[in-house]
Each structure stands twice: as structure tokens, then as C-alpha cells.
Amino acid sequence: MNNIDQEIFNLINSQKKNFPLDQKFYVDNIIFEKDIEHIFSNQWVFIGHVSRIPNIGDYFTVSIGNESIIVIRDKQNKINCFYNVCRHRGSHICIESEGNLRKLICPYHAWSYNLDGSLKKASMMGEDFKKEDWSLIKCNKNIFEGLIFINLSDKPISFAEFIKPLEPFISLHGLGKAKVAIRKVYEIEGNWKLALDNFHECYHCHPSHPEYCEVHSKDYIQSYGAGSHSGPESAEFNKLLKNWNKKVDDLGYFRGEYSENKFSNFYRSAERTPFSNGRLSETRSGKPASKLMGNFKEFDGGYTTIGPSPFNSLIMSNDFATCFTFLPKTNKKTLIELMWLVDNNAIEGIDYNKEEISWLWDETTLADKRIIEDNQKGVLSKKYVPGPLSKMELGLEKFKNWYLKSLKKSICV
Ligand code: FES
Ligand SMILES: [Fe+2]
């Protein structure tokens, strides 16, 4: 182990149970680079939905740390993911973040590539130059129910194994027959772990999220506020859950709970829980906001929360899905991308309106942006010392433990 790794190893071992991380984890550039290489890159992360690029040549780019990935639909209607790196001298090829192209042309010396990544033209090259040796480099990719997952590792974990326990939860909602109704990107001036610390606890919900507290009852927040069993149990909510489980069984819909925290490459959870107060959808009024999706024949008053990895979350009512992607950009910058999916036959203005379906998580994410940024400012102070966590921050503690064990493992190999 080199000196830098030894120092990080000692720092990991010095972290206290039920306290947040030391300052260094939230600001240090070397740790950030390790996070990208060993933590983010080992995960299958969805970065969009196929309906965002419906036509041949439609593309968007997504960037994580120093990497930029092009996601493009080719002439065979296949979606390809390529590293945005020209095979000549390495320039980014796609400069715009989205658009439509007939071919990919590098802006530097005009090498051009077909939509399947093969090199089409490179002028003035030598006799022995073989175009077939210089295709764009593919990024690992899998599409499940319209969600485009990428993995930046050179040896990705099996996608089939990764998705298997989540399949019935996602399939129920029919995301493969959905379309993006709205998409928003929130740029956060904060480390990705501060953004996820915040996402994994609901201790802050009462002071910061009046909208969330209007939609979800105190009992629900106490039991499930930020992911599966992240807070203390509520007898009241458990009673509601029992009755709702019976109703859902009678309707024949899939339900249940899946939670895995092997402290290895995986961090997955999924569950279906009821709304309180007779709500049918995650809207201000509690009334449905769009057409039923997937296998639902009627509203069952429940919704599904899935965490395929720490970098994604799906929160789905019967009629629309809110999809979260957390993208670490630098040691002090993170993008949170939200897309709201509705049934692909739903018509805007008739079956749904954008404001109604995005209201809760738009307001909530704007507030999260503010509190994460204030948190980062305080954590940068020389007087920052991690303070004790509350009973409502068990989700944060779980996320922190997963992170520390994953980082430690990567240093020790
Ligand atoms: S770097 Fe792309 S053509 Fe030269
Ligand atoms: Fe929040």
C-alpha cells in the first residue's frame, strides 16, 4: 500500500459509528478520484430513458468526473454508449449536451464516425492505416424497461444478477411503455456524499420540506422517510401497512420489500408501501395525475420506492414515476437529474400536466439543493467536527458504512 492509500486507510478506520464523515471525505480531490474509480464505476447506474432519444441520430451526453459518455440511437434503432473521446488525439466529439446527428464529427481534425461508432473517414492518413482499428470505445450498457444503465468499470458485475431482485418492482410500473414527460437538472455546489447523506435521511424533512410533509404522514416519514426502514418503526404505520398489504394481495399486484447491503459492490433496496390519508398518487391533492401505468387496472393507494444503487432512485405512483440520478462532477459539485415518466399514451394537457406531477420533487429537490450547499459551506470550515446522528438518520449511517467498506476494499486489493 502506498503512503496516500495508507493515509486514507487510517482515516477510514478512524471514522466513528453514528457520526457523519470527517471533512476530508467531503472536500479532498484524491478521495474524489478514488470515489469515481472505485465506487461510481462499479455500479450500474441509469442515466436516462430510451424515450429521450426516439429518432435515429438523437443523442445526449452524460458526464461523471472526467468522463463524458455519448448515448446515441443508430440506424438500426439500437442505442449505443460511447466514451466521448476521439480516437485520433482524444478531443471530445460531442460538445453540445444533446441533439441529432447524421454522423459524429470530431471538431478538431474532422475524423467522422458512423452512429454505430465505426470510423467513417479520416483524411490524409498513412497507407497502413486501418479504419476498423479506430472505432469509438464502447461504454458498458444495458437497457431494462426503457431505462438506460451504464457501468464505467472494465470488469462490470453481471447486469442480469444486478437487476434480478428489482425486476418485479420495476416491471409492475411498465416503464418500458413510458415516456419522459419532464426532465430537470439541479446543479449542486456540494460533494456527492453530502447530497446522498441528505437523500438518505428524513430528519431534515420537517424543517426543510413542508410539501413532502403535506403529502406523507408523520408516521410514514418516521418509518420509511428516506428509503427502506431508515427510521424507527411506527406502530400506526405498521397497522396501515398490514391492511394495505391485504388489499394489494386481493388485487393481485406485486408488493413486498427487498433490501440488500452486502457491503460489496451492491447497495440495492425496493419496497411497496401505502400512502396515508387515502391518497392515490404523490400529488398535492392526493388525486391521480395521469393515466395508469404498467399492470395497474385500478389505483391501489400505494407506491414503490427502489434504490438500484446509491446513485439512482425510483419513486413511483400508479400513474407516474419520478427517477433520480446523482452524478458526481467534481469534489464539490454534483448534478441531480430528475425525470418524470408517464404512460407513453398519456397526452399532456389532457391526461396530465407537468406542474402537477413534478410539484413535489421539484420543490423538494430545490430545497435539498439549498441545504446541501449550506452544509458544504459549513463542512469546509476549519471548525467543522462531525456531530452525533439522530435516530432518524439510520439511512445515512447505513450509506456511510457501505461507502467506507467499499472504499476500504478497493484500497486493500
Ligand atoms: S482529435 Fe479528433 S480528429 Fe483529431
Ligand atoms: Fe430532502
List the helices and strands and how they pair.
Blueprint: H1 3-13, H2 23-27, H3 29-40, E1 45-49, E2 58-64, E3 67-73, E4 79-83, E5 98-100, E6 104-105, E7 112-113, E8 119-121, E9 140-144, E10 147-151, H4 159-163, H5 167-172, E11 178-188, H6 192-199, H7 205-208, H8 210-215, H9 218-224, H10 235-251, E12 257-260, E13 268-274, E14 302-309, E15 312-316, E16 321-330, E17 333-343, H11 354-379, H12 394-412
Antiparallel strand pairs: 1-10, 2-3, 2-5, 3-4, 6-7, 7-8, 9-10, 11-17, 12-13, 13-14, 14-15, 15-16, 16-17
Helix pairs in contact: 1-12, 3-12, 6-11, 6-12
The protein binds FE2/S2 (inorganic) cluster (FES) and fe (ii) ion.
Note down, in words, how this protein is organized:
The chain is α+β, with helices and mostly antiparallel strands and 413 residues long. The chain has two domains: 100 residues, Rieske [2Fe-2S] iron-sulphur domain (Rieske Iron-sulfur Protein), CATH 2.102.10; 249 residues, Naphthalene 1,2-dioxygenase Alpha Subunit, Chain A, domain 1. The chain is 31% helix and 24% strand. The protein contains twelve helices and 17 strands. The strands form four sheets. It has a seven-stranded antiparallel β-sheet. Helix 1 packs antiparallel against helix 12 and helix 3 crosses helix 12. The longest helix is centred in the C-terminal third of the chain and has 26 residues. The N and C termini lie close together (9 Å). It binds FE2/S2 (inorganic) cluster and fe (ii) ion. FE2/S2 (inorganic) cluster binds next to loops. Fe (ii) ion binds next to helix 11.
